[in-house]
Amino acid sequence: MSAVTETACPLAELVDGAASKVDVGGVPVCVVRIGDDVYAIGDVCSHAQVSLSEGEVWSDEREIECPKHSSTFDLRTGAPTCLPATQPVPVYDVRVEDGIVTIRVAEEQP
Q: CB atoms < 10 A from the CB of 86, how many?
């Protein structure tokens, strides 16, 4: 495996308590800001192949809800926290330095 690290966006562009979709090395990533914390997970729901960045963020629980079938995923671990999803989504390394958000995504080798 190799990895790609790219600038995702300025921190100021992320709305607190909301999700955004960014592309990192061709991988769709759901980025969520909750206060000073920023999370990056795979944007595609493991159950229904829908964009998680279109779902509702549950800030207190640190979760995001899939807009199609209401599965929720832990933003820290990617694990589903309720059905129908049973498989996790990937979690990516995210850093904020000098007001810029960067995300590191591992690439699978053929």
A: 10
Q: Enumerate residues 6+ apart whose C-beta is below 8 A from 104.
A: 3, 4, 5, 24, 92, 93, 94, 95
Of the candidates 5, 33, 16, the one whose C-alpha atom is nearest the C-alpha of residue 103 is 5
pTM of the model: 0.91
Element (H, E) at 24: strand 18-24
The pLDDT tens digits of the residues spanning 74-95 come to 999 999 999 999 999 999 999 9
User: CA–CA separation, 1 vs 85, rounded Å?
Assistant: 26
* Cα separation, 48 vs 86, whole angstroms: 11
Alpha-carbon torsion 53, 60, 41, 66, what sign?
A: negative
Cβ atoms of 53 and 21 within 8 Å: the answer is yes
Residue with tokens 């699978």: 108
